[in-house]
Every structure is written in C-alpha cells, then in structure tokens.
Design goal:
By secondary structure, the chain is mainly beta. The chain has one helix at about 35-40, and strands at about 5-10, 15-20, 60-70, 75-85. The protein is elongated.
C-alpha cells in the first residue's frame, strides 16, 4: 500500500492527497460497564459465559485504513481489506 493516496475528501469537496495509516484499536477500559458485567459472570463456579474459540475459521484479518487529508486534516476510515499482511511503503 502506498504512503499517499489521492482520494475524495468530503470536507474539501474534491480529490486530494491523503496519508495512509493502519487503524489500531485503543486500549479497552477495564471499568467499562460491559467489562464489569462479563467479569461478574465469569466469577465463581460456572466459568466462562460464552464458549471460548478453540479454532479460528479465517486465516486473514480485515485491515482498516485510516486516511488523513493533507489539505484540511480530516480523517476518514476505509473499510477492511482482507489480506494476510498489510505494509505501507514510502
């Protein structure tokens, strides 16, 4: 994948150069309501609430691209490409 792409920017209303980066999820909050609820369900006897995944069906992950407009700085996400490895070249 090239480091820069020329694609449409909604804010500028024209095609501009965008810098490309790979989207990474942020750190999950341990104090979030869902995490607390799940921890409560796991506590004590009875164990895991949902079956733990033993064997994955897919060999690849969907990589989401984060595009940043070089003119206005607006960031957009481009939905996932399914590939084994995504590299951004200079």
């Amino acid at each position: 994948m090239p480091k820069e792409l020329k694609t449409y920017c909604k804010k500028c209303n024209k095609y501009t150069n965008h810098t490309v980066s790979i989207y990474k999820r942020g750190k999950e909050r341990t104090g979030a309501e869902g995490a607390r609820r799940h921890a409560e369900d796991k506590k004590g006897y009875g164990g895991q609430k949902f079956p733990e995944l033993v064997r994955t069906a897919k060999t690849t992950k969907k990589q989401t691209l984060k595009l940043k407009c070089s003119v206005c700085g607006k960031q957009i996400m481009k939905p996932g490409l399914r590939l084994r490895k995504l590299e951004i070249q200079a």
